[in-house]
From TrEMBL:
This is HOOK N-terminal domain-containing protein. GO terms for cellular component: centrosome; cytoplasm. It comes from the Eukaryota. It comes from Poecilia latipinna. Transmembrane segments: none annotated. The lineage of its organism: Eukaryota, Metazoa, Chordata, Craniata, Vertebrata. GO terms for molecular function: dynein light intermediate chain binding; microtubule binding. Gene3D superfamilies: Calponin-like domain (1.10.418.10). One of its GO terms (biological process) is cytoplasmic microtubule organization.
């Protein structure tokens, strides 16, 4: 089974989670590659997360990633840290 990159991208962009995220607000473009890049730079996903949990974070996001891998990685690291589970009950000594 030989799947092209274009087919993988199309499949990913039509997956239920991506469709749900896209319903939360317009991305800058309707072109698949541009939408994908907008998702992976972390800025739009961070907006989604702050709507779900508006508590402030200590780290700022880089809004202008411009396809810079290190800035994208930084943004996604900040995003994943906001998703870390918080214990419901603090352990007592």
């Amino acid at each position: 089974m030989d799947v092209t990159l274009s087919e993988l991208l199309a499949s990913f962009m039509e997956s239920p989670l991506v469709l749900w995220v896209r319903m939360l607000g317009p991305l800058g473009s309707e072109e698949r590659v541009a939408m994908f890049m907008e998702l992976v730079d972390g800025v739009f996903l961070h907006k989604v997360m702050t709507h779900i949990d508006p508590s402030p974070t200590n780290q700022r996001l880089n809004k202008n990633v411009n396809n810079d891998v290190s800035l994208r990685l930084y943004n996604l690291t900040v995003l994943t840290r906001t998703c870390d589970p918080v214990p419901l009950f603090a352990s007592r000594p």
